[in-house]
Amino acid sequence: MNATEQKVKLSSGEIGYFVVGEGRPLLYLHPAGGVRWSVVLATLAKTYKVYVPVMPGFDGNPVHAGLDSMKGLGKLAGEFVDAVIKSKCDVIGHSFGGWVSLWLTAQRPELVDHLVLEASAGFRPKGVGGAPSTPEALKKALFAHPEKIPPGGKTMEVEAANSKMRAHYNAARETDDELLALLPAITSSTLILQGTEDRVIPKESAQLLKTKIPNSFLIYVWDAAHSLEVDQPERVLGVTESFLARSESFVANWGTMAINAG
Q1: CATH number of this structure's domain 4-252, picked from the four choices 3.40.50.10350, 3.40.50.1820, 3.40.1440.60, 3.40.50.2300
Q2: Which residues contact residue 69 at a Cβ distance below 8 angstroms, ignoring those fewer than 6 apart?
């Protein structure tokens, strides 16, 4: 995937971002592990112009002075859309990125068309789920199929630095009560994806989002842990592409699965 890396100056400082593909704009907000290129992103880039900003402090980038909250990252994401995309766009957020995307949508609803939440963080029941502290336990929690992890990856130093950003942005807490109160006002058509084997973000989190966001749809991805795009790329891609293309109509059977009433 030939993504080009660029930079843009925003109110709190400069951030890097990647752009790949052509077509309708799609903003992708990465998880706490940083940017991970997947089959899902590569395939979406055949139809969409995909923008992937790197949040301050991740993947070797410096933190921005005074920017230390998820709400602040949501505001920054809005600035990014204003400065780079310059139009309403679809948004996909994975885990930490899902939390940021919800703050973006709550603060700047005019910027978000379709919203896809992959195992969004920020809404765990007390004492349930969360990221394990050791690398071995974390890998087991993130992947139901670690054999599908793409080759390469990040250095241990970058992974360790990325992990510290959860505390920096107060993203290790279970529930963002301020954001939770704002969810009923979200009008964007929203797809909530939850892996059936996810133990980092429990099913109760996805169910809570479904009850709070009015125009939302909850789909369980079979045999996927927290890293849905790695564990089950075809299943995630199929439902995401259908949702982005058809909005609410994606829930109806179509194509070879449709019933021929004629």
Answers
A1: 3.40.50.1820
A2: 169, 170
What number of helices (H) and strands (E) belong to the chain?
9, 8
Q: Using pLDDT thresholds of 50, 70 and 90, give the confidence band for residue 111.
A: very high
Name the one residue in this structure whose structure tokens are 């939302």.
216
| Distance (Å, whole) CA 40 – CA 27 | 13
DSSP 84: I
Strand order in the sheet with 189-195: 4-10, 13-20, 48-53, 24-29, 89-94, 112-118, 189-195, 216-221
CA 129 to CA 199: how far, in whole Å?
6
- What pTM was computed for the model? 0.94
What are the pLDDT digits (tens) for 170-219? 999 999 999 999 999 999 999 999 999 999 999 999 999 999 999 999 99
Domain limits of the chain?
4-252
Of 17, 35, 201, 54, nearest in space to 118 by CA: 201
Tokens of 259: 């019933």
Q: For 30, list phi and psi in degrees, rounded to 5.
A: -75, 160
